[in-house]
Amino acid sequence: MPNKTIYVSDDDLPLFQRAQELVGGNLSGAVTTALRRFIELEEGREEGYEEVVLKVGHNGVRQVRFSGALIGELQDDDEHRMARYRVYRSRKGKYVMHALLADWTDYPTGQSGNWIKDLTNWRRMLGVGDPDWGDFVLVIVDSIEELKDHLPDKLYTRVADIAERPPIEELDI
What we know:
Blueprint: H1 13-22, H2 27-46, E1 50-58, E2 62-75, E3 81-90, E4 95-103, H3 115-119, H4 122-126, E5 135-141, H5 153-163
Antiparallel strand pairs: 1-2, 1-5, 2-3, 3-4, 4-5
């Protein structure tokens, strides 16, 4: 097996020592794992993918992470329910549907008993950022057709059209 020498600055030595402790002494294995992850992320970025972190479950208590590209989204709210859908193409060619489905009757009103304190949560009241309540649904499929029953028709039509095209169209101009 060929040997490679890596020169480490004095400032970075504690980082390498800590990595070696965490992997039980096999620093080569830690470096190889880190390089694989780095290459995967950078090649994905070059191809138009990014790291995606999504909430899953009731009130988003779990999180999942993958490399993907957003190909469509839709917010479909009415007086009874909030529904937000996003569809991603994963780097490995799967399709990921993420939905937030919540009834307005479940909207978390202030529980403190102090209405002034509850009003200070203006970000939630104004809808700034992603909501942190409701049911966060994740569906992973091999083909876009398998998402038909999980999406509103207008979003399905849009993402099915996008899915037929390459993720990035190279222009020779």
